């Protein structure tokens, strides 16, 4: 299919529905691109094309995305058809006895899942360089840069045109960071909007949620409409929405009160190109009729990040312990990487009371941030404090887990915005509005109040109409001219 990259998921599904292409045609094209670009990227790390062929031959469900090729992150979206390694040698090729609810809903939409994409070990990190995959995952815009993490493989695969959209998950920015680095849409919905069951009640004390990376906003809206809603036995549910995500794309959103923060949330300077990008976005929003004022939340972001770091360390220790118990053995050298070893060691210093205090700190932060959104509808920031980092800068070889997260040159300094809204549970999105002087994408981050997902989506649709981004894609040597 010569014009494959000219279509988003919605458009490809329309071609299948009209009989202009077949699911096998689309899978052939996706696999051809994968074989052409993946050796340079290391983005798709499990090839389930034979499974995909059988799914097509057996007859696909009739849904809104029937026949569209799709990729799952190598973490979450558990499926009996698609074993996963979760970025870890300790968990390599883990199989599942039942499907997750989110996967069941995706499969029922008619998607053809043919692989899984790279993630850092345990989902910890803003780069994707897991040892289990034999090397780093690279950014299609610049192979010496990271696509981000933890959904870095999905970001790279979508940006490179293997698929127009892919599954991801976000516990501290893991969808929005790759979206920013790869020039994509990355929308993190309100806590509990997307189901976690039956394998989890919540991830990282409610801070983690699944979602998608796409090239078009309407694909993100459609995918969210497909999967949203509580699953059986969910511990809590998100507030009801006034309309579907797709309906929100055409809903008016009268002048909004937008707070521009062009520093970090703690007031530190960011890279000049990131600052210029968010100021440019603010000017665009002003021209669109919104009320833009300079403002920064006073919530204790530094305290929240230290609490986040404790919670994630305990989460890492939990999955490592569970894996070893299942295999009935002790931890061996080489089972896990340095950051995970450091997280496990740090977790051993955290008591049960310390853990609950950390959760309370995160909850208090949510209340502090909610107060800011009484007077503001949207908080506008860059997605990242810097352009995409060089490969190796956030490799997992260090065992100083705390410094890796919150040290002077750690991930929090590089990504100082995204985890805030995992802590609060609010919806937030990275949009590919800008490019740096070197041509690399620079994402713009918008967050709204808890439960206001469709209002945020509506604003994003207006922005996409005002400054379309779909055709801004990297050319892959040897396949694109």
From TrEMBL:
<comment type="similarity">
    <text>Belongs to the amidase family.</text>
</comment>
<dbReference type="Pfam" id="PF01425">
    <property type="entry name" value="Amidase"/>
</dbReference>
<protein>
    <submittedName>
        <fullName>6-aminohexanoate hydrolase</fullName>
    </submittedName>
</protein>
<dbReference type="InterPro" id="IPR023631">
    <property type="entry name" value="Amidase_dom"/>
</dbReference>
<dbReference type="InterPro" id="IPR036928">
    <property type="entry name" value="AS_sf"/>
</dbReference>
<dbReference type="InterPro" id="IPR020556">
    <property type="entry name" value="Amidase_CS"/>
</dbReference>
<dbReference type="GO" id="GO:0016787">
    <property type="term" value="F:hydrolase activity"/>
</dbReference>
<keyword id="KW-0378">Hydrolase</keyword>
<dbReference type="InterPro" id="IPR000120">
    <property type="entry name" value="Amidase"/>
</dbReference>
<feature type="domain" description="Amidase">
    <location>
        <begin position="26"/>
        <end position="456"/>
    </location>
</feature>
């Amino acid at each position: 299919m010569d014009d494959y990259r000219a279509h988003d998921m919605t458009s490809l599904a329309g071609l299948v529905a009209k009989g202009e292409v077949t699911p096998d045609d689309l899978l052939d094209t996706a696999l051809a691109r994968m074989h052409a670009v993946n050796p340079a990227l290391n983005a798709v790390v499990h090839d389930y094309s034979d499974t995909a062929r059988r799914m097509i031959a057996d007859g696909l469900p009739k849904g809104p995305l029937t026949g569209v090729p799709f990729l799952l992150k190598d973490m979450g979206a558990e499926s009996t058809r698609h074993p996963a390694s979760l970025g870890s040698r300790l968990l390599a090729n883990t199989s599942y006895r039942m499907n997750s609810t989110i996967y069941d809903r995706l499969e029922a939409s008619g998607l053809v899942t043919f692989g899984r994409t790279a993630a850092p070990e345990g989902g910890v990190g803003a780069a994707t360089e897991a040892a289990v995959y034999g090397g780093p995952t690279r950014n299609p815009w610049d192979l010496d840069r990271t696509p981000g993490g933890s959904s870095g493989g999905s970001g790279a695969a979508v940006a490179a045109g293997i698929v127009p959209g892919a599954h991801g998950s976000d516990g501290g920015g893991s969808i929005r960071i790759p979206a920013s680095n790869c020039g994509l849409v990355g929308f993190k919905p309100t806590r509990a909007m997307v189901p976690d069951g039956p394998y989890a009640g919540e991830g990282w004390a409610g801070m983690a949620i699944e979602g998608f990376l796409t090239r078009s906003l309407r694909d993100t809206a459609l995918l969210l409409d497909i999967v949203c809603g509580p699953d059986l036995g969910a511990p809590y549910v998100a507030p009801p929405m006034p309309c579907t995500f797709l309906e929100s794309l055409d809903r008016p959103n009268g002048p909004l009160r937008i707070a521009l923060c062009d520093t970090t949330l703690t007031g530190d300077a960011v890279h000049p190109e990131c600052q210029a990008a968010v100021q440019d976005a603010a000017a665009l929003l002003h021209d669109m009729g919104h009320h833009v004022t300079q403002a920064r939340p006073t919530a204790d972001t530094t305290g929240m990040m230290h609490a986040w770091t404790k919670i994630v360390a305990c989460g890492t220790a939990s999955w490592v312990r569970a894996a070893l118990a299942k295999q009935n053995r002790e931890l061996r050298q080489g089972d896990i990487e340095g950051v995970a070893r450091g997280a496990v060691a740090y977790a051993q210093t955290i008591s049960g009371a310390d853990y609950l205090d950390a959760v309370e700190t995160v909850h208090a932060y949510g209340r502090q941030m909610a107060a800011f959104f009484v007077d503001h509808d949207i908080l506008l920031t860059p997605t990242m404090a810097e352009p995409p980092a060089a490969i190796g800068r956030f490799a997992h070889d260090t065992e100083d887990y705390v410094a890796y997260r919150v040290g002077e040159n750690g991930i929090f300094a590089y990504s100082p915005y995204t985890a805030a809204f995992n802590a609060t549970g609010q919806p937030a999105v990275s949009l590919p509005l800008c490019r740096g002087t070197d041509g690399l994408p620079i994402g713009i981050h918008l967050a709204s109040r808890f439960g206001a997902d469709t209002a945020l989506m509506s604003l994003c649709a207006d922005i996409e109409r005002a400054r379309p981004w779909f055709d801004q894609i990297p050319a892959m040597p040897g396949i694109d001219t």
